Amino acid sequence: MAENSITGSNGAVYINIDEGLKRVVNNGKLFAKLLSKFKAENAGLLDEALGYTDAGDFEKAKISIHTLKGVASNLALTELYKQTLEMEAQIKDGTVKEETRKSVKECHAETLMLIDEVLVKYGG
After folding, report:
1. Is the model's pLDDT at 1 over the cut of 50?
2. Mapping DSSP to helix (H, G, I), strand (E, B) and coil, where does residue 4 land?
3. Which residue has the higher pLDDT, 3 or 112?
4. 73 contact partners, CB below 8 Å, separation of at least 6
5. Given its phi and psi angles, is residue 95 left (phi above 0), alpha (psi -120 to 50 degrees) or beta?
6. How many other C-beta atoms lie within 10 A of the C-beta of residue 57?
7. For the chain, what is the domain count?
8. CATH code of the domain containing 113
9. How many CB atoms lie within 10 A of CB 14?
10. pLDDT tens, 66-87?
11. Which of 5, 22, 49, 58 could pair with 64 in a Cys bridge, judged by C-beta atoms 3.0 to 4.6 Å apart?
12. How far apart are CA 93 and CA 14, in angstroms?
């Protein structure tokens, strides 16, 4: 487990603060700003991807989930990254298991809530 991290209800690391800060040269305000921007501009990507899968448009779903996965990786949103990686693989296979949908939706919602802890700590 990361030394400075936020864990989710399942005990997994959801936000690796040390890694996130390292990526922005230990600028806590910038890290908070990027997380805030993620909540404002990218939080809808999961719903978008799921909507596309429901409509059978797996090409567009792949783009949305890939974008969400990349942003999660860049911001050290560890658990969301792991779960979107799995969902992306399923989308590429042309199907998404219901258990994966549920798990990723729960992880996404919890990640958005946990981001607020970082925002409070670093003034975002």
Report:
1. no
2. coil
3. 112
4. 81
5. beta
6. 14
7. 1
8. 1.20.120.160
9. 24
10. 999 999 999 999 999 999 999 9
11. 49
12. 26
- CB contact set of 108 (below 8 Å; sequence gap of 6+): 43, 46, 80
- Contact call for residues 73 and 20 (beta carbons, < 8 A): no
- Render the burial of 26-54: b for 16+ CB within 10 Å, e for the rest: eebebbbbbbbebeeebbebbebbbebbe
Domain of residue 41, residue span: 5-122
C-alpha to C-alpha distance for 108 and 35, rounded to whole angstroms = 13
| Beta carbons of 15 and 78 less than 8 angstroms apart | yes
E strand or H helix at 60, and its extent? helix 58-74
Residue the block writes with tokens 């979107």 = 84
Distance of CA 43 to the CA centre of its chain: 8
- H-helix or E-strand spanning residue 55: none
- DSSP, res 3: S
Helix, strand, or coil here: 9? coil
DSSP letter (8 states) at residue 11: S
Q: Scanning the structure block, which residue is given the tokens 């989930």?
A: 65
- What pTM was computed for the model? 0.91
